[in-house]
Design goal:
With 59 residues, this protein is α+β, with helices and mostly antiparallel strands. The protein has a domain of 37 residues. Helix content is 27%, strand content 24%. It has a 3-stranded antiparallel β-sheet with strand order 1-3-2, covered by helices on one side. It is flat and about 35 Å long.
């Protein structure tokens, strides 16, 4: 049985998708040279026209 991923949300919202993309890239780069499998990172648009970054990882 496949479990749904547990999402971890970044602690702030962003006015532009570019700002959120910079944080998403930083999260992905932190795992790049590590021993762990990198996270899945998403940028989601909220109803308030702001963006939030969320990520998950395999446990």
């Amino acid at each position: 049985m496949k479990r749904r991923p547990r999402w971890i949300y970044w602690k702030e919202t962003f006015r532009s998708k570019f700002q959120a993309g910079c944080v998403a890239a930083k999260i992905e780069d932190n795992w790049k040279n590590g021993y762990e499998i990198g996270p899945s990172v998403e940028i989601r648009k909220l109803k308030t026209n702001k963006y939030v970054v969320r990520y998950t990882y395999d446990e």
